[in-house]
Give the backbone structure.
Amino acid sequence: MPGVAWLLYSVLGAALLALLGAALLFWHHAPARNKIPRAQKRRVVALQQMEALAQRLREQEPSLDPKPILELPLEMLAQKLRDEELSLESVLCSYLEEALKVHQEVNCLTDFLGECEEQLQALKKLKRTERGLLYGVPISLKDPYDCKGHDSTCGLAQFLEKPADKDGVIVKVLKAQGAIPFFKTNTPQTLYSLNCSNPIYGQTLNPLNLKKTPGGSSGGEGALLAKGGSILSMGTDTGGSIRIPASFCGICGLRTTGNRLSYSGVAAAVKGKKSVTTVAGPMARDVESLALCLRALLSEDMHQLDPTVPFMPFREEVYSSNQPLRIGYCETDGFTQPSPSMARAVRLTSRLLQDAGHQVIPFSIPCVEYAVKHLFLGGPFGDGGATLLEKLEGDIVDPCIKSMITMLRLPDPLKCFLSWILKYRVSVGPR
């Protein structure tokens, strides 16, 4: 009997310890998680403020027909605004109303930048000669872009209730060029996903097919642009975060060269990645809109605000040239297998470029496996994922990154064992 009693006490003690551990874990996680309901309420209020502004603007022009405005390409819209053929109020009202409709369908907005109303009034006081290339153009921003007084969450609860104390460099340059940032859009949690979902704001859907994802991590921008709720936006890209949503949503996006645009004032779950550079880049409905955005961004203002960015203006003579180009292409990177449709698209594009008079040259990418494993993955996860896991402490892990986080949380001995098995399988090969 004493042995049975001892066993019973041991089981009860272990159960109590387990309950205590669970309670401590819950207490430790509670502060970050408790921010989420407050953030969701703030978004409801922000959307109501957005709707109220649209209504006030509509009352100023009750006969406004937004359709002709929404159909204008960016260059023409910007020109009509500068020439006062369209009022700033009519354009902002049209895009506010349309963005709200798109959000109801795909859940893409996270925060309304209410200061856009004051900015509109300030722009109206400018002389014609002071109007920038994007004068009066409403522009949307991916969530990580710092805007004074607003959170840059990256879909993380830890980043909530920490509003930026100033605008980021790119936001300042856009405003100097007359653009009116009016809201932020959704991203996947941590930004490390091809999906677009987080525990704060939920899942964003693809407007072309509501059963599909718009891609990540600039998925909110992709969905909004595809449905016409924005005409120009800024995304970010490390390994496809602009290009994938552009592809999935049928729009245009540009991953700029590293350090071509300032990244000061753009939030990130993991900073200091040197082997793979995260960049800022524009997203729009057509290539001409991307070019106009770059003309505006590549100004002396950016170099003055961030001297680490070299002053290299937009090269109009290269963009407008009719000289044939020498273009390289590959159907596969040698590491992943493209789908038949992707390979077909590359061949079709190659043929069209040749028909247009350009020289098209096939090439292969060297050392792809090394680059993927040691540079691309080794950059963000050079510390074994410790920094990323820190950002998720106290948070709910979204399903779109759950498998990645589960692997990062494995004990080091188990990781070593699994790594040894994988290396053995690769060295032996399939049987």
Q: What stands out?
A: The mean pLDDT is 91.
